[in-house]
Amino acid sequence: MRQAFKNTSWHWDSDAARKVGDAPDHARLYLRMMDESDYAERLAPVVGTLAGAVLDIGAGAGSLTRHCLAPGAHWLAVEPNPEMGRALESLRAPLSGRGVRVDWIPSRWEDLNRESRPGGLKADCAVAFNMGATHHEADRLYDVMRACSPGTMIWVVPAQEAPSSFCLAGYLPEEFWGGACVPAYQKTLEQLGAGRRPDQIELVDWTCRSSFASRNEVMTYFIDRLDVSGDVAAAAELRAVLARKLERESAGNRVSCSKRSAVLFWRFGQ
């Protein structure tokens, strides 16, 4: 294929996101994808139990965090996306049965230093699960989170040799997104340098899955996501590849691909 995947930073409100659909549409697609994947099932035992005040940067809908919270925990969920925020708010009642308190903070992580709570925003542990800043602005994010938590910090960072911001890229042949990529967590470590290196790194394999209403919806999603709708030849080639692949598989309109995540741990003061 003449046009390789552009491995740019993905953000719910980016120009690239708007090409495919509006931000709520992307949020809903992501939520459905996480529900169908075994991401939380595979990652939660490795992340472990999160107790006390838990600062969750880029919380999304808490796909992983909510499975790790200890009874009585206070979840400080920092998430600017309104659709994700509504999903977080819906968790208040079910989590209250475990004594977990949920505070949705509709803020960007860059603005946390301006948080107006008395004494600033403080937590027993701080986490950032599967968000772009961990490998695009790792040094800045580290400083912000370190200032908020004197205890433990945990990041989950993409570790597959495929685009980090395109969850289903691995469903396609490598030629469609430019071949093997440097795993995102390696970029994270380079940005942090030796002085901020994690105390522990664990690699976890999982499977990303998403169901679509029809084969045409599958094709439309990938054509728009790769931004080749204006290239007739490229779109036709992509449709042909997807048609053959879907025909060979017995999962209907459900697509899946293998993923790998790196879990990074810092234990301050220990």
The side-by-side strand order for the widest beta sheet comes to 3-2-1-4-5-7-6
What CATH calls the topology is Rossmann fold
Please give the number of β-strands.
7
Integer count of domains: 1
Write the CATH homologous superfamily. Vaccinia Virus protein VP39
* Oligomerization: single chain
- Please report the distance between the alpha carbons of the first and last residues: 51 Å
Would you identify the regions where 5 or more consecutive residues have pLDDT less than 50?
1-14, 16-22
**Largest sheet, strands/sense/barrel:** 7 strands, mixed
How does the helix and strand content classify structurally? Answer: alpha/beta
Percent range for β-strand residues:
15-25%
- The number of helical segments is 10
Helix-strand string: HHHEEHHEEHHEHEHHE
Helix content: 25-40%
Query: Which architecture would the CATH scheme give at its second level?
Result: 3-Layer(aba) Sandwich
* Overall form: globular
